[in-house]
Amino acid sequence: MSVLVYIENWDGKFKKVTNELLSYGKQIAHEMSVPLYAISLGNVADQEFAPLKNYGPDKIFVVNQGFEVLDNQVYADAIVQAVEKLDAQVVVFSQDNVGNAIAGRVAARLKAGFVSAVAGLPLSISPFIIKKKIYTNKVFGHVKINSAIKVLSLSKNTFEVIENPAAGEIVNLELAIKTSSTNRISVDKVTGKILLSDAERVVSGGRGMKGSENWGMLESLAQAMHAATGCSRPVSDEGWRPHTEHIGQTGKIIAPNLYFAIGISGAIQHIGGISSSKCIVAINKDPDAPIFEVADYGIIGDAFKIVPEFTKLLQQS
Amino acid sequence: MNILVCLSNVPDTTTKVKFNGTKLETEGVQWIINPWDELALTRALELKESGAGIDNISVITVGLEDAEPTIRKALAIGADDAYRINSEAFDSFYTAAQIAELAKNIPFDLIMTGFESADYNGVAVGAMLAELLDIPSVGAVSAVNVKDGKWLIDREIDGGKEVLQFDSRVLVSVQKGIAIDPRIPAMRGIMNARRKPLNVSNPVALDSFNEIIAIELPRSKSKVKLFDPEDVQSLLDALRNEAHVL
Ligand SMILES: Cc1cc2nc3c(=O)[nH]c(=O)nc-3n(C[C@H](O)[C@H](O)[C@H](O)COP(=O)(O)OP(=O)(O)OC[C@H]3O[C@@H](n4cnc5c(N)ncnc54)[C@H](O)[C@@H]3O)c2cc1C
Ligand SMILES: Nc1ncnc2c1ncn2[C@@H]1O[C@H](COP(=O)(O)O)[C@@H](O)[C@H]1O
Asked: Beta strand A36-41 with A59-63: parallel, antiparallel or unpaired?
């Protein structure tokens, strides 16, 4: 028996969430008294592996042929084979577009219960009960999984990264990899920018920012804080910002350590996308704006004055 | 070409959810087509109207009779026919497997699901359904187009997008960007919808693996700490020394 964590790479580098996933998997493996294994698909630079040992994997299995394009069918098939070979009882993915697109397929093949948006360690191992966010973060459900194998995807920022050095032996796994039928005809990506979905800090603006011409001030703040930029839905609907920055129930659901909501009223659909943030700061001139009900810190006042001042202080220190 | 759109019937997104045990209290709740599914249907209709070669758009729901107003709305805005599998959607696997059983008997070239349902947030039914049907699936889809009888599918990736082409059956889970404004049923549409086929079938005996055994309310947050607009330094200090996030 084992616990298996799928560790995703992006352009040959492991995603930041990897350490959290391993720490989480380690804790479950520990409670079940079984080893923790990780599996990586696709080409990843050698030096990426060494730091992972700190977070508890007994072995890291690597399959590096044939994963140029994300073909969920091919990826899922490989992971299913690994689960069977390694007798994994619990399979952990990251709660994101890639993790969930594969996890559902893996679970269906294995006739396993799948729980996404997992919000903590199992409440009990036998029976297996896990906490999941439902109703777009409004409440948690305690979900009992009755199948032999359990497939989970862990929400970001759910679990503390814990150092727990282990052997982390790297093993090439021989699998029969399916040939992909996915025909990719173009790729278009920005590099060098902090990704919203992966960002530890996010600076987000709403309709209170009045227009795209005022985003320079938010970008300066974001830069000073090493943050990604985001926005509320009307802002992307108006075309002030690209749709990829739209946060909320019908946009991206994020969980950064620090979220700045600037000129955002805090509609329930927006809150759904940010309520897992560790610390929320609201800057709004309306003391009754609902954003203050979910914020940890706030300033009631004019963003056009406060934001540049705050940025200046940050840059000076 | 035929498109199958999977519809989930969910509480309106502004609903303040209340529970009686593990059951949602439905009194006063407005039911809607899951927003993503509504946009998927909108895109399917746009494709059909643009002359892209779409012959038929079917919608499919696993749900009890109370889901019918939602299905009727889908027919009223333009779906050609509807299927309802008369069962509670016990869990994602059960739901996907019921749809898979039915889909074996319906000719389709594209299946569209939403990225997630607004109630259970499973992000699961689409991928599971594709696996059960043994067809490719694409998540995070922000555009679907047809060119020379092939599907052109935009997928959002971290920091950008890629375009994939499929010339056989495929399932897409759609998100933001797939269509902009959902449609409002017009009187004529509502009248027409009454004459469109709504096929009801019984569920197949199938497993479900997950059950919600308890609901936990989030801890109420401690009150917001406010700072004077003239004193942004204190906010910076708090973020550094108290919250440790800077
Ligand atoms: C089905 C559905 C799904 C939705 N999904 C989403 C979603 O995913 N994400 C989302 O964000 N919204 C979503 N919405 C929209 C949501 O209901 C709100 O309309 C939206 O979030 C409001 O955006 P906002 O806060 O930017 O604008 P507003 O509500 O207009 O708020 C602007 C705020 O700026 C403040 N302000 C103005 N000037 C200043 C100034 N100089 N300094 C400081 N503050 C200032 C105002 O006091 C106000 O609070 C959805 C709606 C529906 C119906
Ligand atoms: N009961 C259902 N009937 C039909 N389709 C559903 C049902 N539940 C979910 N779906 C589809 O699957 C998508 C993802 O739902 P979920 O996996 O629950 O997050 C939804 O957007 C729908 O397209």
From this structure: parallel
ipTM for the predicted complex comes to: 0.92
Residues A134 and A155: beta-carbon distance below 8 Å: no
Question: Which ligand lies nearest to the CA atom of residue A288 in the structure?
Answer: 1
| pLDDT above 80 for A192 | no
Q: Any CB–CB contact under 8 A between B89 and chain A?
A: no
Find which of A114, A193, A246, A265 to mutate to test the B interface (most B CBs within 10 Å of its CB). A114
* Confidence at residue A249, expressed as pLDDT on a 0 to 100 scale: 87
In a domain, A73, yes or no: yes
pTM comes to 0.92
Whether A253 contacts A230, CB under 8 Å: no
Q: Is residue B222 part of a domain?
A: no
> Residues 42-71, chain B: which have Cβ within 8 Å of A?
none
The domain that holds B153 is classified in CATH as 3.40.50.620
Tell me the pLDDT tens digit for each residue of A7-31: 999 888 999 899 999 999 999 999 9
B57 domain-assigned = yes
Pairing of strands A9-10, A13-14: antiparallel
* Domain encompassing residue A7: 2-172
Give the pLDDT confidence score for residue A193 in this predicted structure: 72
